[in-house]
């Protein structure tokens, strides 16, 4: 099924999705990778406030290249999601509803997706230049010292993704 989805990704929307659905996302999401996830995880472990609101949020695992003149962002392809797996169950338990990346997830992440009525999406690796055209705004909102791994808030319009893991336990990589 092909669907247009407005972000944020609330539970009822995430629960309506099924592995294999083609999505076009519009709205705000965050960009964060390994180093930012480690800092967020440590803050949560210490009971401190996060620099972003992850409740019903979508995090895109991506490290953008610098924007060329006249562009919002440079190449914006997904990175390997499993690098965030040790941090993800806690983030899902704290309200995160959607992750976008590429590749398989651990069983702990898949269990947390089901438990929290969340969803894992994949975007096309190697198509960063095309994906960047769907990003209409980009700003660093935390950890500027991390450079390309800083947390960004981006606004997207018709950003393409496919549901890989849904909250019913379906897994496109396993079932396809």
Query: What's the overall geometry?
Result: globular
Strand order of the largest sheet: 2-3-4-5-7
Number of strands: 7
- The low-confidence parts are none
Helical content class: 10-25%
Q: Span from first to last CA?
A: 15 Å
Question: Which key phrases capture this entry?
Answer:
globular, 5-stranded mixed β-barrel, single chain, 176 residues
Topology:
Layout: E1 2-6, H1 11-16, E2 22-31, H2 34-45, E3 58-60, H3 88-93, E4 98-101, H4 107-115, E5 119-122, H5 128-132, E6 135-142, E7 151-165, H6 172-175
Account of the 3D structure:
The chain has a five-stranded mixed barrel. The longest helix has 12 residues, at 34-45. It is an alpha/beta fold and 176 residues long. It has six helices and seven strands; from the N terminus they run βαβαβαβαβαββα. The two termini are 15 Å apart. The chain has helices at 11-16, 34-45, 88-93, 107-115, 128-132, 172-175; strands at residues 2-6, 22-31, 58-60, 98-101, 119-122, 135-142, 151-165. Helix content is 24%, strand content 28%.
